[in-house]
Specification:
With 409 residues, the chain is an all-alpha fold. The chain has two domains: 192 residues, Growth Hormone, Chain: A (Up-down Bundle); 199 residues, MFS general substrate transporter like domains (Growth Hormone, Chain: A, Up-down Bundle), CATH 1.20.1250.20.
């Protein structure tokens, strides 16, 4: 079936039960992941020193970064649905093996490290393929709504999973948490294998050696200015806001004597704002999505310094603003990325963009902490927020990117 025919037969997004069920299943899996993440961290601090526990929690990041570009090649060469089935099957095997190991011998640092590394590798293969699913299911004009609903499902699933995770690991141990997470992946596998079928299949990349295919991705990036601009801009998207929220809010609350409960409330306001922004994408169709998305991120950069200025209510308003702009921008810019990048290179472009976050985020976190220590948290928030706002002005000056419309992509 051709893409054009599939597009005509696809129902309106509001009545698209296949897409809605897919997002629901993915949200359940996100809840399972949150349960497992809490179980991993809690068990690590019980069986190891704080330093070793930190190593366990971060153990998956290095193999993920190493394999991520290969995951992009796999996503461009093979059917995304089948790649996801294989990756999720490996995850189930790893989780079941971990549950059996803990049941027979008890938890150990070695077991936790092996599971974290295995998950990092499977994530690197799974994520580039999974990122292309939206483009293969809905019309280009519906991608912002798809992104908004998927983002809302992710946040709700993570929130519910986190709420359940502490109770579950306390009463059923890490083996119980692993079993629940494995069940969510079994549900995803069943849905992918039985029901999910792409309506708009992407062009497949030519079969060639992996290193040559990776070089081909970077060559495409160099020769395609709009794609290059999007990948670079989106790679730096979280380098200011993540340190501001992850370190800036706790440091400000501590220095002002607001108490630990205020940290949770401020973070919750970010999540609430993001949910509101994501929900707005279900009905609102921006005429020029890239212009609106990057404009929102300029506003987000302006809001970050407000976290370090004035009374508590101003920080609360800043958190709500950061959340709303993140929800809108993520949906719109994700849609622009999906429809702008050539289908045969989409997986590799996703992997390159995600690699930027993996490589530079530790540097951004350390730099924020160092600047806050040498000066103050207010100075660090102002510096990072201003840098983000100025950085987002760069894509806003690209006329071709700003004039893109999703229906014409």
């Amino acid at each position: 079936m051709s893409t054009a025919v599939a597009a005509r037969e696809a129902p309106a997004f509001a009545r698209d039960r296949l897409v809605q069920l897919w997002i629901l299943m993915k949200s359940l899996s996100d809840a399972g992941d949150a349960i497992w993440t809490i179980a991993l961290a809690w068990t690590a601090v019980q069986v190891a020193s704080p330093a070793t526990a930190g190593l366990v929690v971060a153990a998956g990041t290095i193999p993920r970064a190493v394999v991520l570009l290969v995951g992009g090649v796999v996503a461009d060469r093979y059917d995304a649905r089948r790649v996801m089935v294989v990756a999720n099957t490996v995850r189930v095997v790893v989780l079941v093996a971990a549950a059996v190991w803990v049941t027979t011998t008890g938890p150990s640092v070695l077991m936790l490290l092996l599971v974290a590394i295995a998950f990092g590798i499977t994530d690197a293969v799974h994520e580039p393929a999974a990122s292309t699913i939206g483009r293969q299911l809905v019309r280009p004009a519906d991608l912002p709504a798809f992104g908004g609903l998927a983002q809302l499902g992710n946040r709700l699933g993570t929130m519910i999973g986190a709420a359940i995770g502490g109770f579950l690991v306390a009463n059923a141990g890490i083996e119980g948490s692993a079993s629940v997470d494995a069940l969510t992946f079994v549900g995803i596998i069943a849905f992918l294998a039985i029901w999910l079928r792409p309506r708009h299949p992407l062009d497949r990349a030519d079969a060639e050696p992996v290193l040559r295919s990776i070089r081909g991705g970077f060559t495409h990036l160099r020769r395609t200015p709009v794609t290059r601009l999007l990948v670079l801009a989106l790679s730096g998207l979280n380098l200011a806001v993540t340190p501001a929220l992850g370190l800036g809010i706790p440091l400000r609350a501590s220095s002002e004597g607001w108490g630990a409960q205020s940290v949770g409330l401020l973070e919750a306001l970010v999540g609430l704002g993001a949910a509101v922004g994501a929900l707005s994408m279900l009905r609102w169709k921006a005429r020029f999505p890239a212009r609106t998305g990057f404009g929102c991120l300029v506003a987000q950069g302006v809001a970050i310094p407000a976290l370090g200025l004035g009374p508590w209510w101003l920080s609360s308003l800043a958190c709500l603003t950061i959340g709303v702009t993140a929800g809108v921008a993520s949906a719109l810019l994700g849609a622009v990325f999906m429809t702008t990048v050539d289908g045969a290179h989409l997986g590799r472009m996703v992997s390159i963009q995600k690699l930027g976050d993996d490589v530079f985020m530790p540097v951004a976190m350390v730099s924020f902490g160092a600047l806050a220590g040498l000066t103050s948290v207010t100075v660090a928030l102002c510096a990072f927020g201003t840098a983000m706002a100025l950085l987002m002005l760069w894509p806003l000056n690209n006329r071709m990117l700003m004039s893109l419309r999703l229906g014409e992509a």
